[in-house]
Amino acid sequence: MDKTHIDEIPMLIDKHGVSSFKIFMFYGSHGLHGASDAQKQFLMIGEDERYDYAHFEFIMRGVQAAREQFPERARQISLSLHCETAEIMTAYTKIVEKDKSLKGLAAYSASRPQHSEGLAVFIASYLANETALPNINLLHLSSRKAVQAAMMMAETFPTSTSGARSPSAT
């Protein structure tokens, strides 16, 4: 989702009934299947764009604006996030690439330490609170640290008087 797609969110809801949007937080120097030195080409984003936390915030603001535009559908409109941090994945991928004893799933897992996922949960939850977006789904949490982070964030940002709900883990 590039910055032009954010403006299309209301149209997707109104004309096509789309109610859930999804983003991957881990792009940076990664593509879906691992390290990538061609992020802009992979993501098909403009030279002046970055797929970073500010971009995630603007997506959240776009989804929340659509919730406000369509109050009768607001409870169904949500954003789902794959929670990982590109910077930590990049650093750990370099370590894994140097360790020739790691292969396959062990290498994949070592390049994605639990604290990367946990930190991303904190960031996603904080940004959701900042943008007043109550309907976020934290997808495929795979570590104790991520679940603990989600529980801590649910306590930190409980249901507000505006009807906001704590983030959910799925």
The tally of structural domains comes to 1
The structural class is alpha/beta
The share of residues in extended strands comes to 5-15%
Low-confidence stretches: 160-166
Ends distance? 21 Å
Shape: globular
Q: Using only CA atoms, what is the Rg?
A: 17 Å
* CATH structural architecture: Alpha-Beta Barrel
The CATH topology: TIM Barrel
Oligomerization state? single chain
Structure description:
With 170 residues, the chain is an alpha/beta fold. It has one domain (3-169): TIM Barrel, CATH 3.20.20. 49% of the residues lie in helices and 12% in strands. The chain has 8 helices and 6 strands. Strands 1-4-5-6 form a 4-stranded parallel beta sheet, covered by helices on one side. A two-stranded antiparallel sheet has the order 2-3. Helix 4 crosses helix 7 and helix 7 (114-130) packs parallel to helix 8. It starts with a helix and ends with a strand.
